[in-house]
């Protein structure tokens, strides 16, 4: 992305949020658009793919707190007045071939310009373009419940900036190389005097890069980076949870000037299971039972993710009791293993035959001395006495 893009493009509008939107609102808007516009959901739709790339580019800036701060500062400084001003220098020209935008931390105007034009702060006579680590990239993947518990290998298609395969990042046509700018000696800055003052400004010839590409690469236009779709196979570890991020080191955007690439973060979305739930490393299961099964005791056969087990229910077990099946929960790579927690819930029939009603009435008479709510009964009697 050129530095001009930081000013000319409205990344907030691209994501459909206001410039004062919270980080959570920005992330929510990006995820929604990414799901709607992803190439897998719109096969053969060139417009959707272009929008997907634009949304990904916008989130790469305003989704990163530090880049967003720098982007806002740049827009505040240049957004209304435009480039050039009254200095006689065309900043738009200077930014034309600049890669990656503002990398300072807001340390004043001097810092901002120093970072904008990639000036190194080391001592000595010359300055050179600093290596700049590639940006991190985030994508989403959806797994079903069993895949999340047991782990899965999933294919990914990513549309993101990558090192140009044709020029290998040099920006020059294969067989040629960039030359050191003769006007600035590779520094990227030239000095000029105005009255009693001396000023440094980005070199017009190389536009602040210190290099001249006489024969640009036909695929990336001299940038050394282009946007392309690549395929990856990602192993999602067993036990991953909903909304968890998996980090793949070095799979993000390429670095500049020899710096390392950014990382790829894969955010996992887990589809709920119709029967099982999850609490940490434990799986949960609700099993309907009849009152006689709890009162008299029984043996239940309950499912697990890989089969079934038998559970002994002791006579007099209460509704809501949780029985634990050891080792039938989530098994993580670090050796931790959860359990299957089975909650027993009494199922009440909605309709009764005459025979069933008579049996229940007889049971009610036979257990008339049994009070299921002794604590409540005591409180009611105390309230009446007072």
UniProtKB/TrEMBL annotation:
UniProt zinc finger (CR-type) residues: 151-229
Residue intervals of the CR-type domain: 151-229
Binding site for Zn(2+) 2: 181, 184, 203, 206
Quaternary context: Homodimer.
Residues reported in the UniProt entry to bind Zn(2+) 1: 164, 167, 217, 220
CXXCXGXG motif repeat boundaries on the chain: 164-171, 181-188, 203-210, 217-224
NCBIfam families the record matches: DnaJ_bact, PRK10767.1
Function: Participates actively in the response to hyperosmotic and heat shock by preventing the aggregation of stress-denatured proteins and by disaggregating proteins, also in an autonomous, DnaK-independent fashion. Unfolded proteins bind initially to DnaJ; upon interaction with the DnaJ-bound protein, DnaK hydrolyzes its bound ATP, resulting in the formation of a stable complex. GrpE releases ADP from DnaK; ATP binding to DnaK triggers the release of the substrate protein, thus completing the reaction cycle.
Family classification: Belongs to the DnaJ family.
Main location: cytoplasm
Keywords: Chaperone, Cytoplasm, DNA replication, Metal-binding, Repeat, Stress response, Zinc, Zinc-finger
Keyword RNA-binding: no
Domain notes: The J domain is necessary and sufficient to stimulate DnaK ATPase activity. Zinc center 1 plays an important role in the autonomous, DnaK-independent chaperone activity of DnaJ. Zinc center 2 is essential for interaction with DnaK and for DnaJ activity.
Record localization: Cytoplasm
Protein name listed in UniProt: Chaperone protein DnaJ
């Amino acid at each position: 992305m050129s530095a001009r893009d930081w000013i000319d493009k409205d990344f907030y509008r691209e994501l459909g949020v206001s410039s004062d939107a919270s980080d959570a609102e920005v992330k929510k808007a990006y995820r929604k658009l990414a799901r709607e516009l992803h190439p897998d959901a719109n096969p053969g739709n060139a417009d959707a793919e272009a929008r997907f790339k634009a949304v990904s580019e916008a989130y790469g800036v305003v989704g990163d707190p530090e880049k967003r701060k720098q982007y806002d500062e740049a827009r505040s400084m240049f957004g209304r007045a435009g480039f050039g001003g009254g200095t006689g220098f065309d900043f738009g020209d200077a930014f034309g071939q600049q890669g990656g935008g503002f990398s300072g931390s807001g340390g004043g105007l001097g810092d901002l310009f120093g970072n904008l034009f990639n000036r190194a702060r080391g001592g000595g006579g010359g300055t050179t373009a600093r290596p700049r680590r590639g940006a991190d990239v985030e994508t989403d993947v959806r797994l079903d419940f069993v895949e999340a518990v047991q782990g899965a290998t999933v294919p990914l298609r990513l549309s993101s900036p990558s090192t140009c395969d044709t020029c290998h990042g040099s920006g020059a046509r294969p067989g040629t190389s960039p030359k050191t700018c003769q006007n600035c000696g590779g520094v990227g800055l030239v000095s000029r005097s105005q009255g009693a003052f001396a000023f440094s400004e980005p070199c017009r010839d190389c536009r602040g890069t210190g290099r001249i590409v006489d024969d640009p690469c036909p695929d990336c236009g001299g940038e050394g980076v282009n946007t392309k779709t690549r395929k990856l196979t990602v192993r999602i570890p067993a036990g991953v949870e909903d909304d968890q991020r998996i980090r793949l080191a070095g799979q993000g955007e390429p670095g500049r000037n020899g710096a390392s690439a950014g990382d790829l973060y894969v955010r996992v979305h887990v589809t709920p299971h119709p029967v099982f739930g999850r609490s940490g490393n434990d799986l949960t299961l609700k099993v309907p039972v009849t009152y006689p099964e709890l009162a008299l005791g029984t043996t239940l056969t309950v499912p697990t993710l890989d089969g079934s087990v038998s559970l002994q229910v002791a006579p007099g077990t209460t509704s809501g009791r949780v029985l634990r099946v050891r080792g039938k929960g989530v098994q993580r790579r670090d050796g931790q293993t959860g359990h299957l927690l089975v909650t027993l819930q009494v199922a009440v029939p909605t309709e009764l035959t005459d025979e069933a009603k008579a049996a229940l009435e007889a049971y009610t008479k036979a257990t008339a001395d049994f009070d299921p709510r002794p604590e409540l009964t005591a409180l009611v009697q105390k309230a009446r006495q007072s």
